[in-house]
Design goal:
alpha+beta; Umud Fragment, subunit A
Amino acid sequence: MKKYKRAIRTVLFALLLAFVFRSYLFASYIVDGESMEPTLYDGNLLMVNKAVYDWQDIGRQQVIVFHANEEEDYVKRVIGVSGDEIAVRDDQLYINGKRVDESYLDPLRPNDGLPFTEDFTLEEVTGHQKVPEGHLFVMGDNRRDSLDSRYFGFVPADTVVGKVDVRYWPMNQLGVQF
C-alpha cells in the first residue's frame, strides 16, 4: 500500500509540475503557413518560452509568437522595437540608418533578379517615422509571401505570448534559438 501511495504522489506531483510549466512557462504551437520559411516550415511544432520577457526586453531579430486577434496567433521575426526607424533599400534592411545583416534569409532568396524584400520606409507602410512606444514591427522571413507589419501595422508588445526557443517536430529539423 505504501508503494502505491508513493507512486500516486509522484504521478500527481509530475502532473502538477507539467501543468505549471505548460500554463506559466512554456507553450506548444504549430506553424501554420509559409511566412517564416526557411526558418520555420508549415506544420513545425514549436516550444515557446512564455516567461523570458518577464526578465528581459524583446529584442530585434528574435522569433516570437503573438496574438494577432482573438482566434489566431502569428509567428514572426521582430524587426524593430520602440523608437526604431526602419527602411529597406536595395533589398537591405536598415534600422536607425545602419545596415542589418539578415543572413537567415539567404536560403530562400531566389536568383530571379527581383528584390526579395520590396523597398519601403516605416512611414510609407505605417504612417509613423518610428516604432511607437510599447509596440513592435514584425516581418516573416519569407518576405514575398508574409502577412506582417507592412500590412497590418505595429504589434502591441503586450500581445506577445513568448519567444520561440525550440522546434521539436519533425525531429530531423530539431532546432533551438532562432
